Amino acid sequence: MWKNRRRIVALALLIGATIYISYRFWDGPVDRRHSETAGTLRGVAGGQEVLLSITPWPPPAMREVDFTVSLPGYAGTGSPYVDLSMAGMEMGRNRVDLSRGADGRYRGTGVFVRCPSGMHDWEATVTAPGAGKAVFRFAVAD
Ligand SMILES: [Cu+2]
Fold it and tell me: pLDDT tens per residue, the chain (142 residues)?
């Protein structure tokens, strides 16, 4: 009886860990092949929905990349901006300033520098003034 219960608990932990890991490293509904089409990532800053599109996708290092941010129903006055960083690594300030287009989307260009460590895992933090921050994690192509 007890042995069985322990087995069930172990199985539940294993399933939980698998779900957690898949969720943590999920890049959003994106195509993994390199393309000139945008990868659109969805996140939330405070209660604000944040859509971040990066073109090309996946973004190459050391090349100009287009960033488009959509904030449906955004009530804030300030333009959002994107900070590019790597988890647990000091890569220097790398901010992408965005400006509002006629269609209400915010656009800007930025460059992912090549990491000396050879890692490709980057974070894009979108700050929507008055709402909060949304962090997106993804891999930069070589
Ligand atoms: Cu790095």
Answer: 556 777 766 656 555 665 454 554 554 444 444 556 778 999 999 999 999 999 999 999 999 999 999 999 999 889 999 999 998 899 999 999 999 999 999 999 999 999 999 999 999 999 999 999 999 999 999 7
CA of 111 to the centre of ligand 1 (A): 13
Element (H, E) at 12: helix 2-24
User: Distance, CA 47 to ligand 1 centroid (Å)?
Assistant: 30
**Residue 18 alpha carbon to ligand 1 centre in Å:** 27
Q: How far is the CA of 62 from the centre of ligand 1 (A)?
A: 13
The neighbourhood of ligand 1, an ion, using CB within 5 A, equals 86, 89, 91, 115
Nearest to 25 by CA among 102, 133, 121, 95: 121
Place of tokens 């930069």: 140
* pTM given for the model: 0.74
Cis peptide before 80 (omega within 30 of 0): no
Q: Is residue 130 part of a domain?
A: yes
Q: What is the tally of structural domains in the chain?
A: 1
The CATH number for 117's domain is 2.60.40.1930
Range of the domain at 53: 30-139
